[in-house]
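cache lookup: miss for this entity combination. No prior model stored, computing from scratch. Input as submitted by user K.M.:
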Amino acid sequence: MTNPTAFDFPVTEVTSVASAAELVELLQGRDPDAPPVRICGTGSRQREVPAPDRPVQAVSLRGLDRITRLDPEDLTCSVEPGLLRADLDSALAEKGLRLVCPRSRGTVGGMFALGREGLPLAPGPLATLGARALLLGMSAVLGEGVAFRAGARVVKSVAGFDLHKLFVGSRGRICAATELHLKLRPMPRAAETFEKVDLEREEALSLFRALRLDDAPPVEVELACQDPSGPFRVRGRFEGAAAVVRSRMQLYRLDATSPREPANPAEDPRERLFGLVPPSSLGALLATLPARTAVWCDGTGGFALRPADEADANAILATLPGVGVSAELDLTIPARRGLGTPRDPGAILVEQRLFAELDPGKVFA
Amino acid sequence: MSELARALTAELGPQRALTTPEALLAYECDGFTIHRRRPTAVALPETTEEVQWLVRLCNRLGVPFVARGAGTCLSGGPTPTGDALCIETARMKKVLHVEPEDLYAVVQPGVVNIRLSEHVAVHGLHYAPDPSSQSVCTIGGNLAENSGGPHCFKYGMTTDHVLGAVVVLSDGGIAHLGHAAGPREPHGLDLIGLFTGSEGTFGIATEITVRLSRNPGSVRTLLASFTSVDAACAAVGDIVASGLTPAAMEILDQATIRAVEASVYRAGYPQDAGAVLLVELDGLDEALDEEAPEVEAMFRRHGALRVEQAKDAAERKRLWKGRKGAFGAMGRLKPDLYVLDGVVPRTRLVETLREITAIGERYGITMSNVFHAGDGNLHPNISFDGRDAEERHRVEEAGREILELCVRMGGSITGEHGIGTEKLDHVPLMFSEDDLDVMARARRAFDPTGLANPGKVLPARSSCAETSKWPHMVARVLAESDS
Ligand SMILES: Cc1cc2nc3c(=O)[nH]c(=O)nc-3n(C[C@H](O)[C@H](O)[C@H](O)COP(=O)(O)OP(=O)(O)OC[C@H]3O[C@@H](n4cnc5c(N)ncnc54)[C@H](O)[C@@H]3O)c2cc1C
């Protein structure tokens, strides 16, 4: 079920649909003067996307929760968007398979539409390319109620334009996906999670760098602190051949720890800046941050900052472009959500044209 | 001299503005030789500003433009469909910036794929997508086609390795797509993801930011020969099921082996074998020491006639030489070669290949198969004489049936070579009129003037409405495929 308390913006009603056909019917039969539609899953991550500027009708796809196809030998499956990521992981694990991107809360559709897990985790082979590389194709519905498909179900296809790529990170503004075709991988032969705590800044940065640039880098690595002056924590996960996992743990003198459940960033009351930083600029970024800013950074450029207050967030936002960083505010009050670093005007123009072409009636908010 | 030719010559000079019929002859087709059409003129810009100037000129004169890299495309992508200015990137060959710490490089579109890997080798890095044409094809062409290659089973396609691009749009505007630290900014759409694979119809990329990969610590290359393609496919199935992810798994059938062995690409493949399977493992020695014997055991379980493991770089090169030269070897059998490119779920390779053989026999054509077995990406190669209209017709019909078969198996009409003009009529096998209409709308956002490489990827509205020229076939395939 969608949690009605998940919304911190005005919602006129929450409507649930149980099939793609129902969604098409709902959108086609919509009164053009009706409030715009906000597509949602469980609603658990609504505070991570900009709030609508008008009251909306929330349309929940949580009822579309089937695994419609699972071909273990072809390493592909198709799922409906309302399926919980945790349920997908369990079903895949039974077959010795998995989706190679960090576990996340909420639905699979929400995960792709948000695109946060789409950030690559570590350089190198496919095992580390992130969610974006795992979406092979989709069925979806435009705001006017037109159903369409893009991509394919097989692991490789370049037929037609990759509209499914556009869905990743689109936050329900382009289309509502009704089926997603995914690429799977076998469970790793060996895996080990590690964590080093209480590190000095330079020590942490140099371990982080060495891990990122290792010949067999961890599939996940993150550097975090509650204050830019430290102490720092480096956490990550090696996967692959047992001998390699063992040798890397020894080489870096790492202790094994247990994997953790996906965190719920919304539990922290502070607003967050979420974005991209070239990893080599991380030191420069840390140097610009005010005290009491919490930092989290992954191996290939994804980062999140928790400034102590709104004034600090504004100050940081103003300095970010100078260090080659692109970022946006989330988990804050609706009026501030979506504030971010300046973007290229040409890219903005193309986006505006895309919205005008694909959702001319401005149905999706 | 036309106004276009006059303006080009005045701006770029005769060396960089080609307008004579003789000079234009070289641009009348790409690797898909069935479709030929000379462009009105060819321009060779060197900078983003010059490309922008050319596109604005096209706008003023109402002339379409077609970007061209090395012209190795196998689906007609850089061949014009009517009057058009060909904008060739041969003089945009600079590697602009390399950031070894952040594992990316910024390049001009005319940089040849393999040159980029050579350029960054000093840092222990390479550019992962490796089409077999990599010694010639350009990064711009790779981006536009979303090219693959033998190593994409493990490393992914071009789209997984492109972070951003500067693009000249068809109205002369410039857009910077993506970011050096990731393809999509947190508050933006994945525009570079959509641009990749758009086959020159979304504008011209003039600077491309690509992800670099670290060179693997070690590589093991194994070649096994089998009595049949079926046995080689079964071995691939076992390898995948075991949880190993080899960097590459390539199969060549007997006809290809024989063609290769009779050519300059001779690699010492056993000519009596029904198929050879080339498997490459990469990573650290401690893993490969376990994995290589495991793979060898799987080969033996499926009745491998002979197993070879490259002992050094020279042997590795030899084993790959036959695979990389397969198209070239087949091309020597007859004046023309039609390289098909379909995908099926990997588990349906064997039955698909059987049917392909039957199709070949029915049409009386010379055919061979070389394919990316890990991805189920087939390349049936048909050698023919394009001057013989009747033979050409049989070849086209066989090709159509093969792609129809791929879709019926739940696959795709192209895994890496693109639609171009070659597969326009097959697009409705995979996509409905509504699907194509949505794609056309997305395209207009990048190409509002309709001047960017018209006539490619999406069938013309009318043929789309008629569901292509084989309406019955389309209806049947759509009904039979469970996609
Ligand atoms: C022997 C042989 C082997 C091959 N092996 C493979 C393989 O293993 N895998 C594979 O995927 N392909 C393969 N190909 C196909 C071909 O090499 C690829 O499609 C390649 O990416 C084309 O690059 P190019 O520079 O030749 O581009 P071109 O053929 O010149 O152009 C291809 C398309 O890109 C567009 N384009 C070119 N530059 C730009 C730009 N700067 N901006 C926008 N659009 C642009 C053109 O308009 C055209 O539509 C092979 C071809 C041959 C002949």
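stored under new cache key. Residues 209 and 279 of chain A are 8 Å apart (CA to CA).
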